[in-house]
Design goal:
The protein has helices at 24-29, 34-47, 58-76, 104-107, 110-120, 208-217, 275-281, 294-300, and strands at residues 18-21, 49-53, 90-92, 125-134, 162-168, 180-182, 194-195, 205-206, 230-234, 238-240, 250-258, 268-271, 286-287, 289-292. The protein is of the alpha+beta class. The protein has a single domain (18-308), classed as Jelly Rolls (Sandwich). The radius of gyration is 19 Å and the shape is globular. The chain binds 2-oxoglutaric acid (AKG) and fe (ii) ion. This is Phytanoyl-CoA dioxygenase family protein.
């Protein structure tokens, strides 16, 4: 008889995410081997989050970071009119999708797509490219936490339908505001767990008594995430942006892959000369795009939405069955 294995529901699962160590052979082949693909897929199903470590070249992260740090301060200077989410220490910040900045290894990473495809089905839809920046403390203002929330704050399917591909541009830790994550909450949660009406600063939050209950079962954590990693997170997972106590802006890019059957209608604005690159490097994704001139991107990318101005719902939603 070999029925002695503990079921995962009875095991004491860690608060820290599974980190999959990517090998140089996998980078060169642009493909995970079966071992790492299985680890990543099972971790994403079980925990709602997995880290792929040592995937992206630091030189590309550094180049993008210098542009985005400069932009973060411009957005911060907009004050009350800036694109902050919940509090002014955390802003929604888009990278410019122009030839100089659209690095395929960051925005269309084949290993990330292999993992999202494993969970969502072939050719996920890429419909969102943005970022969240945790800003260093401002004069006289104590840095704040966001309330614990999910980004899927609407009536959504119970199966995995959307996955966020996060790319931090620097090492991320408690000091500079590594995102707090509540592993395993992606498939236990429902709309009933949310409190607060949708406002333009995204006032969604998980009810306090549910947080306290969940903390006893599996506490949250703010993981150390090494620069060069990709963090893959189920859109339904409970999480919170945390204060950045350091002197460095912490930019974390966010690309969302939706399941091919989930008819999300958003589009990403790209410079039109990127078409060959998107078609070639993004062949495993359906990149829902709006093509415009490079000048239009440069004129508009710092005046985009934030909070609830994005619609993660789908067209022609099926009634519950
Ligand atoms: O910046 C972060 O760490 C998370 C931000 C976030 O979750 C949000 O703004 O919805
Ligand atoms: Fe969020």
């Amino acid at each position: 008889m070999r029925f002695g294995g503990k079921s995962s529901s009875r095991r004491n699962l860690s608060s820290s995410p599974v980190t999959v160590h990517i090998t140089s052979q996998e980078i060169a082949a642009r493909k995970l081997g079966w071992h790492n693909l299985e680890m990543a897929t099972r971790a994403l199903h079980r925990d709602g989050l997995v880290v792929l470590q040592d995937v992206i070249e630091h030189s590309k992260l550094d180049a993008l970071n210098s542009t985005m740090i400069r932009d973060a301060y411009k957005l911060q200077a907009l004050g009350d009119d800036g694109p902050f989410n919940y509090n002014k220490g955390n802003i929604q910040q888009d990278p410019p999708m122009t030839r100089a900045h659209c690095y395929p290894s960051i925005f269309l990473n084949p290993l990330a797509t292999q993992v999202t495809t494993s969970v969502l089905g072939p050719k996920p839809r890429l419909t969102f490219v943005s970022g969240n920046s945790a800003l260093p403390p401002m004069n006289g203002i104590e840095p704040q936490s966001q309330p614990v929330h999910t980004d899927a704050d609407f009536d959504h399917p119970e199966s995995p339908f959307a996955v966020v591909v996060n790319v931090p541009l620097i090492d991320m830790d408690v000091e500079n505001g590594s995102t707090e994550v509540w592993l395993g909450t992606h498939n236990t949660t429902s709309l009933a767990a949310h409190e607060g009406k949708q406002g333009d600063r995204a006032s969604d939050r998980i009810a306090k008594h549910l947080l306290e209950q969940r903390r006893q079962e599996r506490a949250p954590c703010q993981p150390y995430v090494k620069k060069g990693s990709i963090v893959i997170r189920d859109l339904r997972l409970w999480h919170a942006g945390k204060p950045n106590f350091s002197n460095d802006v912490r930019v974390m890019l966010a690309m969302i892959h939706f399941a091919p059957w989930y008819r999300n209608a958003m589009t990403v604005e790209f410079s039109e000369d990127l078409t060959p690159l998107l078609d070639h490097e993004g062949a495993d994704l359906q990149i829902q795009r709006t093509l415009v001139s490079e000048q239009t991107i440069l004129d508009g990318y710092l005046s985009r939405g934030y909070g609830n101005s994005y619609d993660f719902n789908q067209k022609s939603r099926l009634e519950d069955f």
